[in-house]
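U., I forgot to send this yesterday:
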Amino acid sequence: MSDRLKVLFQHVLPKQGLTVFAGRIARARGGAMTTRLIRWFVGRYAVDMGEAADSDIASYQSFNDFFTRPLRAGVRPIATADFVCPVDGAISQFGPIDDHHMVQAKGHRFTTTELVGGDIALAARFRHGSFANLYLSPSDYHRLHMPCDGRLTRMIYVPGKLFSVNPVTARGVPSLFARNERVVCIFESADHGPFVIVLVGATIVGSMATVWHGVVNPRRTGRTAEWRYADQEIVLKKGEEMGRFLLGSTIVMLFGQGTIAFNKDWAPEAKVRLGEAMGDRPA
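Result:
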């Protein structure tokens, strides 16, 4: 099937229904049937179970338990760089924010205001800043970690579409990451100022969860929701877990102007791993 047909198919696919159905299957504790599903998935996507804290496929009670499995201690050492890669995945795009525009793919751009759900004041904090967009494939580890130390100040749930976020769709659907359902997590860093981590939903992504809230979107009501944490001391360290996808997707990070100089070895489509050096503060 051509890329164009794949994108057209995305527009007619019953994405909401498929996502609800997939979520039910992923949560089900189906015994031997669940084990068979996990075993098929491991073979189909060449998942390296040797990195998992529990490599026994039969020990997982549900597909979600398997999909969000923790890693063995020490398999993802955290670099000494100022900023580390927060996930296992691949680089979609990264670089400077042009005024308030970011590159989604060749020929497609979207804005920081669109991404954060229309909050103009929040988006203005990242004018001429930097962004990084990382895609998590089905075979990847699906817990999300902190790129640097940060104190949580706000979280916004933005309802939206559920297009696939794979590279083909990113090239073919304008403003994809600003159209899909997403969870916007806003942090303040004593050393690096404000930064944002956006968890972007997708087709069959059952839910998105954070360590401080749990599942953020258990019911898709179509309404924006916001939580403020000024009265709480939710501080997470570089490399510490901050959330997870219950089935895979994409994250987009925003940093202020002059905050990060990206790793010179980074390039679009390159594979990256949790804990690797993502960048440092400019000299």
